[in-house]
Design brief:
The complex is a heterodimer of chains A (416) and B (161). Helix content of chain A is 35%, strand content 12%. By secondary structure, chain A is of the alpha/beta class. Chain A folds into three domains: 8-173, Glutaredoxin, CATH 3.40.30; 201-331, Rossmann fold, CATH 3.40.50.11540; 371-416, no CATH class. Chain A has a five-stranded mixed β-sheet with strand order 2-3-1-4-5, with helices on one face. A four-stranded parallel β-sheet of chain A has the order 10-9-8-11, sandwiched between helices. Chain A has a two-stranded antiparallel ribbon with strand order 6-7. The two termini of chain A are 35 Å apart. Chain B is of the alpha+beta class and 161 residues long. Chain B has two domains: 7-63, no CATH class; 75-160, 3-Layer(aba) Sandwich (Glutaredoxin). A four-stranded mixed β-sheet of chain B has the order 2-1-3-4, covered by helices on one side. Chain B starts with 6 loop residues before the first helix and ends with a helix. Classes of the chains: A alpha/beta (416), B alpha+beta (161). Chain A binds chain B through residues 35-36, 38-40, 89-92, 94, 234-240, 243, 275-278, 313-319, 330-337, 402-405, and chain B through 21-26, 28-29, 59-60, 63-67, 82-85, 120-128, 131, 136-140.
């Protein structure tokens, strides 16, 4: 683990550079590298495309900035940006390949289709009809026209599928870590908690507990060891929104936890990822390493008194560890036995013999959250609306329906 | 050791976590990733090095589904039996594999120690149901026939080596 440092000024310079690099990208090919599409062979497609482009003299750029840290590419042939994106949520149609800025989505792509995609679509702008999505006799060329996507207003899952899942610079180019910067330099913990409360942001685990109130209750505790915990133990069959975020937009979770840390006065966080999500685990580890390298995690972040260290724990196959107290027990290296509350989250735990045969030890003040909830935090702060109606669940209905394939029943107007 | 487990390696893994108790689960996961199961000697060594009771180590090892106290095969087959996969007929796949591997009663590992068959509850790839993983490699839209074909190919590869 190499810990870097970054000052506020350096961050702002990096942001400008990254945004310039992103807007300079003329052609992007995004290959879905979520669990589902990888199962269908999308990484072979990625490798083949890279080679096939090189053979044709097409310069392929992976990652936002060039190796020398520069934005402008040396003018040599056509430049193509190849990216591994996160899960689109359209797994039944995978492997998926998206071309931007045209917005074309190819489905059921195989390695054998790659040459045609390069020669016809990338070089000549022609569509390969057989790879386009079809429903009830209608062919859809563009991702946004497909009924499955048209009905969606992607907030939590924004960027999953449309950005490079492994590039921190792309995250920065899309305003990543700027909400954290504002929270760190321009707001007090109390102000952050109030703003999150006013936004109406609630927990995504079914309890719907107001996030701001949870953070405030931890903030108000006397100074001491406090933790932010992210519950990535998404065990409900049919649900894989958290998986999509952890695989496809891991930095958004890190940023959400950093903001929670500033708000609640915490300097340490844990992300608990279920064992059945090995890709999410490795993407998060990579993202954390990059964030540390760049200086968003570690000690005295951006030259302030705020320090934050983030760990990722793997589950070991116990569904019950999705419950908050069981999850904490698991992080502590114990059996994942839920315990009777009080204290509620945010409260101080018992010291000494606790319920059942296991010694709880010092149960820590913690603010647990799901990836879905944490992802909304920087988004809300960046969009700056004190009462963000679009993020407030409509009477707690219509959010985060379990994923179904495009031929299943869709919730009408469901928010994601 | 006669079961192929190196205690030096086990200690190395425990040391890499600073011998800290709260890393117990991660320690067991790493050891199991290498040796496919946790033997009684391993559990005792962990208890010793972390300075906790053997009973405690056993209690954690037996609580979590992922840990095995029995030697596993080279290929670990997991048939997803989450709701979506179940509804799309994961059970016939499971039964077909059991029959093909000639597993009896509670037996999970084939006689040639090549395959271990387990179920898992939801891998989050529901759009591709029914899903089977072999050593964490995901195979989608499986059928009993495809599963048997896959195992047959793996057996052939092993025989060729």
């Amino acid at each position: 683990m190499t810990s870097g440092t970054i000052t506020r000024e350096q961050f702002e310079v990096r942001q400008i550079k990254d945004k310039r690099a992103l807007s300079a990208q003329k052609k992007q090919v995004l290959i879905c590298a979520g669990t589902g599409c990888i199962a269908g062979g999308s990484l072979d497609i990625y490798d083949y495309l890279k080679e096939a482009c090189a053979k044709r003299g097409i310069q392929v750029q992976v990652g936002l900035l060039h190796e020398d840290g520069e934005v402008e590419a040396p003018a040599k042939g056509k430049e193509l940006h190849l990216k591994k994106s996160g899960c689109h949520g359209f797994c039944e149609m995978g492997p998926l390949l998206q071309i931007e800025p045209d917005g074309i989505l190819y489905t059921h792509v195989q390695v054998s289709d790659c040459d045609e995609i390069i020669d016809r679509t990338l070089l000549k702008g022609e569509l390969v009809e057989r790879l386009l999505y079809q429903l009830d006799g209608v062919t859809y060329a563009k991702h946004d026209e497909i009924p499955f996507y048209k009905k969606q207003h992607r907030v939590v899952l924004e960027n999953c599928g449309s950005t490079d899942a492994e590039d921190i610079d792309e995250y920065i180019a899309r305003d990543g870590y700027s909400a954290f910067e504002k929270a760190l330099f321009e707001m007090t913990g109390e102000e952050i908690c109030k703003e999150i409360s006013d936004s109406g942001l609630r927990g995504r685990g079914g309890g719907g507990f107001p996030a701001g109130r949870k953070w405030e209750s931890v903030r108000k505790q006397p100074p001491g060891k406090k933790y932010v915990v992210c519950n990535g133990d998404e065990g409900d069959p049919g649900a894989f929104m958290d998986r999509s975020i952890m695989e496809g937009n891991p930095h958004s979770i890190i940023e959400g936890m950093l903001i929670a840390g500033v708000a609640a006065g915490s300097d340490e966080g844990y992300i608990y990822v279920r064992a059945e999500y090995p890709l999410a685990f490795s993407r998060l580890k990579t993202a954390i390493a990059k964030a540390e390298e760049m200086g968003f995690l570690g000690d005295h972040i951006m030259g302030t008194d705020f320090s934050f260290h983030l760990h990722v724990n793997r589950g070991a196959g116990a569904f019950v560890c999705g419950e908050g107290s069981a999850l904490t027990a698991s992080i502590e290296g114990n059996r994942g036995m839920p315990r009777v509350k009080p204290p509620p989250d945010g409260g101080e735990g018992p010291v000494g013999p606790a319920h059942g045969p296991e010694q709880r030890g010092d149960l820590l003040q913690r603010a647990p959250h799901h990836p879905k909830g944490l992802r909304l935090v920087p988004l809300h702060r960046h969009r700056g609306q004190p009462r963000n109606e679009s993020l407030r669940p409509h009477r707690q209905r219509g959010e985060h329906r379990p994923h179904r394939g495009p031929h299943g029943h869709h919730p009408a107007g469901g928010h994601l | 050791m006669s079961n192929g487990i190196s205690m030096e390696r086990v200690e190395e893994i425990i040391d890499s976590y600073g011998c800290q108790r709260h890393h117990l689960i991660a320690i067991m996961q790493d050891i199991q990733a290498e040796y496919k199961y946790l033997s009684p000697e391993v559990l005792e060594r962990i208890a010793q090095k972390l300075d906790i009771g053997v009973a405690k180590v056993y209690s954690v090892a037996t609580f979590y589904e992922n840990f095995s106290l029995e030697a596993k095969g080279k290929y670990i087959i997991k048939v997803c039996d989450g709701t979506a996969c179940h509804v799309r007929k994961s059970q016939p796949i499971y039964n077909a594999i059991r029959e093909y591997l000639e597993l009896e009663d509670k037996q999970k590992t084939s006689a040639d120690s090549l395959f271990t068959l387990e179920t898992v509850a939801c891998l989050g790839a529901c759009g591709l149901a029914p899903v089977v993983t072999v050593n964490d490699q995901v195979h989608s839209k499986m059928t009993p026939e495809l599963a048997i074909e896959l195992l047959g190919e793996l057996r052939k590869e092993e025989a060729a080596q």
